[in-house]
Specification:
- The chain contains 17 helices and no strands.
- It is an all-alpha fold.
- It has a single domain, classed as Amino acid/polyamine transporter I, CATH 1.20.1740.10.
- Helix 3 packs across helix 17 and helix 4 runs antiparallel to helix 5.
- It is globular.
Length: about 375
């Protein structure tokens, strides 16, 4: 889940908003982390206790709702995966100098190879774990090189100069929005970690996943802040790359390539796996051949990028819509927590319910606000 969240959009969003908000972006990160934890604790717990995937839970809440939720997740996942494949291509372009299209094709083949090995689940888990540690380690190096004003970052995190609602929606949507909300929950189900007895492990995993993604976000924010605070301007076409290049020269630029590729290819794997998990239970044919559907999902994403290129405006639009998918999905899960035919005799903690309802209302309001204010600018 953590490495699914850390994708090309994650890198770009973090550096872009750091340039816009400077140290005050720390407040946005803090609020998004609190919301992310509330979402994960609710969603993963209900999935584990019910021992069902989200689409089946939604269908039990209201017949047909699961199909609607699955359609939103799969369409969003496919659109994002085109960008993820493009990001992987850009990463190899930076490292080896090959074209982004060829880099995307090679990365797509690599991602497909992960699911062709005999122990595909273990291979996927190991790849994302290693990539996560490598990305964080390299980002820490660049952060120290950038020498950010840590004291200012801490003070503005508590008392910001401004509060940017669009930034909050974007960060939450990019961390636990769309398919990412369910990436870890569905993986736990498939790994056999489910039932009331698994709640402690599920709780630990859900918070750890947010922690890993948030650590990466904080280090990247500080690296970008160090560059911006010195008066440098970031390249609008690739702000994350310019942070690494300005902070650590050509070595930093190559490091960015490694981070971009690792972030992108793990997101390709996570998006494909989770998106297909949303349609597995709708057909025994899909369930029996789910690996083939995952491979097809990756192949389509790769082909679209190689032939057409990255549809940037559509990707940004889907990113905004993630802010609306999240409150819908979370509301369904909270409602399911109180239906005995779904969770049996399980009692959902009242504080988690209240926490979840607050997030549903807040994210719904901020999501609508960001769509009204963001889309006209996007297509103007």
């Amino acid at each position: 889940m953590a490495t699914s969240a850390i994708g090309p959009g994650f890198l770009t969003q973090t550096t872009t908003f750091t340039e816009q908000l400077a140290a005050s972006f720390g407040f946005v990160i803090l609020i998004s982390i609190i919301i992310d934890i509330g979402v994960q604790l609710n969603v993963w717990r209900i999935i584990a206790v019910s021992e069902k995937r989200a689409q089946d839970i939604a269908n039990d809440v209201l017949p047909g709702l699961g199909y609607f939720l699955a359609a939103l997740i799969v369409m969003g996942g496919l659109a994002f995966n085109i960008g993820n494949v493009g990001g992987a291509g850009l990463g190899l372009n930076v490292i080896f100098g090959i074209s982004p299209e060829l880099g995307a094709l090679l990365s797509g083949i690599f991602a497909i190879g992960i699911f062709l090995v005999k122990e595909a689940g273990k291979a996927m888990d190991r790849l994302t774990q290693i990539a996560g540690f490598v990305m964080i380690g390299l980002t820490i190096y660049v952060m120290f090189t950038a020498q950010p004003p840590v004291g200012e970052a801490v003070s503005k995190t508590i008392w910001p100069d401004e509060i940017n609602y669009l930034a909050i929606v974007t960060l939450v949507g990019g961390t636990v929005g769309g398919y990412i909300t369910f990436a870890g929950g569905h993986r736990l189900i498939d790994a056999g970690i489910k039932g009331k007895s698994a709640i402690p492990e599920v709780t630990k995993s859900s918070v750890s996943a947010i922690g890993i993604a948030s650590i990466m976000r904080v280090f990247l924010f500080l690296a970008a802040l160090g560059v911006v605070a010195k008066g440098f301007s970031l390249d609008s076409s690739n702000p994350a790359a310019s942070v690494f290049q300005i902070a650590a020269g050509n070595v930093g630029y190559k490091i960015f390539g490694v981070i971009m590729w690792g972030a992108a290819v793990t997101s390709v794997v996570g998006a494909a796996y989770t998106s297909v998990s949303f349609i597995r239970t709708f057909s025994s044919f899909i369930d029996r051949n789910y690996k083939a559907f995952i491979l097809g999902f990756i192949a389509i994403s790769t082909t679209v990028f190689v032939l057409i290129g990255q549809p940037a405006k559509i990707l940004v639009l889907v990113g905004s819509l993630n802010g609306l998918i999240l409150p819908i999905a979370l509301a369904v899960m909270i409602f399911a927590a109180y239906k005995k035919k779904i969770v049996g005799d399980y009692k959902h903690p009242l504080w988690l319910t209240i926490f979840g309802i607050i997030i549903v209302v807040a994210m719904g309001a901020m999501g609508i606000y960001s769509l009204i204010n963001g889309i006209p600018q996007l297509f103007s």
